[in-house]
């Protein structure tokens, strides 16, 4: 198994990267594990809306109450149970996530990024999180300073591959293909 840690600021295009990777990696099977799914499941059980604010609060509360890396440990348990040829840990955010990825024999970190205005505009139409389509640019920028976002650039600086996703979808697809050619086909 190859473990790929995928990180990037919100709305940078991580999900699209995974779709491209699954296409280019065939016939290998690509599995996706998102740390946010653990949070979604928890909030759903509690009957709490999965707003970005609530997801951030839950993440911070978990680390505060149970120690740093609590969410990372939940993700690790899901990774080791996945039988895919390539497993993507989507949503790397913390130093403990980076340490987890690097603990696997075959590992890579991919950093997908774009400027804030581009990502904000994407969020207006994506509809992934409750209320995200109504956020002003100022609110978006404020969320960029959340505790869950603070380590992304630092971890990204050590990534094995970086994509600046500000061009066309076709250009982005070419970058994903280049990643596959350089790292997965060898």
UniProtKB/TrEMBL annotation:
This is Dephospho-CoA kinase. The lineage of its organism: Bacteria, Candidatus Giovannoniibacteriota.
């Amino acid at each position: 198994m190859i473990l790929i840690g995928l990180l990037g600021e919100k709305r940078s295009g991580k999900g699209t990267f995974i779709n491209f990777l699954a296409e280019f990696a065939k016939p290998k099977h690509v599995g996706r594990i998102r740390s946010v799914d653990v949070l979604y499941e928890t909030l759903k059980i509690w009957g709490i809306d999965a707003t970005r604010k609530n997801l951030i609060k839950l993440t911070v509360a978990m680390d505060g109450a149970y120690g740093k890396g609590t969410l990372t440990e939940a993700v690790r348990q899901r990774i080791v149970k996945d039988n895919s040829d390539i497993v993507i840990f989507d949503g790397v955010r913390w130093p403990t996530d980076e340490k987890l990825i690097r603990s696997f024999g075959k590992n890579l970190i991919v950093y997908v990024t774009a400027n804030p205005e581009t990502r904000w505009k994407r969020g207006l139409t994506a509809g992934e999180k409750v209320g995200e389509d109504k956020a002003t640019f100022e609110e978006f920028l404020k969320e960029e300073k959340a505790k869950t976002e603070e380590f992304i650039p630092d971890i990204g600086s050590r990534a094995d591959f970086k994509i600046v996703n500000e061009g066309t979808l076709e250009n982005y697809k070419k970058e994903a293909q280049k990643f596959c050619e350089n790292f997965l086909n060898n």
